[in-house]
Amino acid sequence: MRNQARDLARLSDEQFDILREGHPLVKAKFDAWIQQLTSCTNAYASRCEQLAAFMKLHDRLPRHRGETNAEHQLAFWLTQQRQAFAKLSSTQRFALESVHPKIAQLSQKLANPMGKFGLRCEALRQFIEQHGKFPSPKGEDDEEIQLGLWLARQRTRLKTNALTEDKVRLLRHTHEFVSDRVDHWQDPMCNWQKNNNRCVFFHCGVRTCAKTFITGFQGTITGRVDWLSG
After folding, report:
1. What is the phi/psi pair of residue 220, to 5°?
2. For residues 18 and 165, what is the distance between their CA atoms, to the nearest angstrom?
3. What pLDDT shows up at residue 2?
4. How far is CA 16 from the centre of its chain?
5. Is the CB of residue 20 less than 8 Å from the CB of residue 30?
6. Fewer CB within a 10 Å sphere, N or C end of the chain?
7. InterPro entries, alphabetically (predicted)?
C-alpha cells in the first residue's frame, strides 16, 4: 500500500479505479489522499502559475522524464490533478483551465469521461466492421494494439465492477460481437448456453421440416394409390 501511495499519480485511470473500489477502507484512504492533493488554494494557484510559465516557454505539457527536476515535479502534479479531477472544486478547475488552451482541452475531456469512452467504442466498432475480428494487443499496427489493450482493460474493469452501467451499456451497443463478448465476460457459460439453444432450435427445425416432408410424401403416395385403384 505504501508503494501505491507513493506512485498514486503514476497509476492509469483503470488501475486507480480498480484499487480505489477494492474495499471501503481503501476508498476512504484514497479520498483522503485526493483531498490532500487538492487542498491549499494558495499553493494550488502557485502551481498553476508555474505550469503556465512552463507551457508558455515550451508550448507542451511537462513530461515525467523531462530534462529538469522542475519539469518532472510539474508533470507529477498535473497527473495528480487528472487523477483527482472529480474532486476538484470549481475554483481549482477554473484555475487549471486558465493555465493554457491545451490544459483547458484536457479538462473538458476529463469532465466528460463518457465522451472519451464513446470515442473508443466507435473506434472499436469501425475496426470490427473493417476487419471482421477483434483487435489484438499483439496486432500488426499501433491502432490495433492500443484498441486491443483498451478492450482487455475493459474486461478487467468489468470483472472488478469498475465499469459504470452506462459504460457497460455503451460497450454492448458497440457491435454484436462486443455484446456477445461482454456476455461471456459476465457469464462464461453464456456462449455455451446460446450455442446449445441454437442447436435445439436447429434440431427442432429439422424435425419439423422432415415431418412436413414425410407427411407430404405420404399424401402424394396415398393419392397415387387411390388414383390407380380407381
Report:
1. -65, -45
2. 15
3. 45
4. 14
5. yes
6. C
7. Helicase_assoc
pTM of the model: 0.41
- Pick from 90, 5, 6, 97: nearest CA to 41: 90
Q: Which grid cell is 220?
A: 402424394
Q: What residues contact 20, with CB distance under 8 A and at least 6 apart?
A: 26, 27, 30
Buried b (16+ CB within 10 A) or exposed e, 38-70: beeeeebeebbebbeebbeeeeebbeeebeeee
> Beta-carbon neighbour count of residue 143 at 10 Å?
12
**DSSP 8-state secondary structure symbol assigned to residue 133:** S
Give 61-65 contacts, CB < 8 A, sequence gap 24+: 61/102, 61/103, 64/10
Query: Grid coordinates standing for 221?
Result: 403416395
- Write out the three cell numbers for 225: 394409390
Structure confidence by residue, pLDDT tens digits, 199-224: 555 555 556 555 665 566 556 555 55
* 92 residue type, one letter: Q
Q: What is the rounded distance in angstroms from the CA atom of residue 16 to the CA atom of residue 148?
A: 20
